[in-house]
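Cross-check.
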Amino acid sequence: MTKDELNGILKKEGMYLSPVSDGTFNNVFYVVNESCVEVKFDGVDFIFSRDGGRGYGKKTVAALIDYANTPIEERKPKPQLYNIIIAQQCDPDLYYVAWRKNEFNDFEVDSGTLEPELNCEDYQFTQDEIYLLKKELPENQKKMVDLGVTPVKPKEEGALPF
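Predicted model, tokenized:
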């Protein structure tokens, strides 16, 4: 579970991970509300505050346990991914012209990309990968890449890639 996923669950109960100790640098994290520390995880035990004076829902406790059992590297937020769509062809089947990474990890343009393929890793780029791609391109193509960068929407839980 990432810190963003846990914060989404905690937000429903008016709490959030402390920005200073969020469990992404070591195994210690604090859950706070507007006025006090609600929960502290010291790497071994959960310490629940008496100042909050309330119980915690099953979903919140389960999320805290899941987060505590998640390796530190996996807690960090996942980077935003982007498609780079250059054009859209209006055939009976909707095709896109899009950049992708091939099996040699080189960048290439695919002129027959179907919409479901945009959900595949080969067609999704991080900011760093976009920077590397643009480094190799002439100025006019860099502008086309900038115009074609489209954020990938996060997959809904349980959704299939196609």
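The first helix runs from residue 3 to 11. The chain has two domains: 3-75, 82-151. Passed to J.P. for a second look.
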